[in-house]
Amino acid sequence: MNATRWTVLEQAHGALRTVVAGVDEKAWTLPTPCEQWNVAQVLRHAVGDQRAYGAALTGNDGPTENPFDPSEDRPGQEQTFVESALTSTAQALAAVAPGTAEVPCPLPIGPLSAEIVVGAAALDAAIHAWDIAVATGQPSPLSAELAEQLTAAAETIAEPLRAFAFAPALDAQPSDDAAAQLLRYLGRDPKWTP
């Protein structure tokens, strides 16, 4: 079987890798746009979510802790911690053919189409990359182009999961680009600062 190349997932995973590599040693306890979580917790959550996407397909290598109750502790060897989860998820999703109508996913609204499951995994990685970036003073990894690619997945999964996974949407602003629109739709202020 040939592996499927999901460009949007590669871009989102690249964003998370880059941002994690840029976190200063003293920044793991900083607050983030995820009000209850520090930088280390957002990373642990993001890694747990990625592992959950892979495990939904393979039954292997699921999260090692509850992604919605992540430890406050710095994971240690962060690049290895992230890479293991991203590689596992990318390999699992590479086995999914585009156009597949029903693909298992860890969300309580699945199964969903291949494009939405891949988009949801990418959305999770990209949005949490943004959370970590803005919390640690790094440039936003969420380009307007990437945000446009993630919008269909966001529109499919956000409303059913608003009660526990997404904050209420914020009002769009006339000056918003696609990245700002996506962030507001997911309950994040694009101008958030610590």
From TrEMBL:
Sequence segments annotated as region (Disordered): 54-78
Domain of life: Bacteria
Domain Mycothiol-dependent maleylpyruvate isomerase metal-binding, residue spans: 9-133
Pfam families for this protein: MDMPI_N
InterPro entries (UniProt xref): CHP03086, DinB/YfiT-like, Maleyloyr_isom, MDMPI_metal-binding
UniProt name for this protein: Mycothiol-dependent maleylpyruvate isomerase metal-binding domain-containing protein
Organism: Cryptosporangium minutisporangium
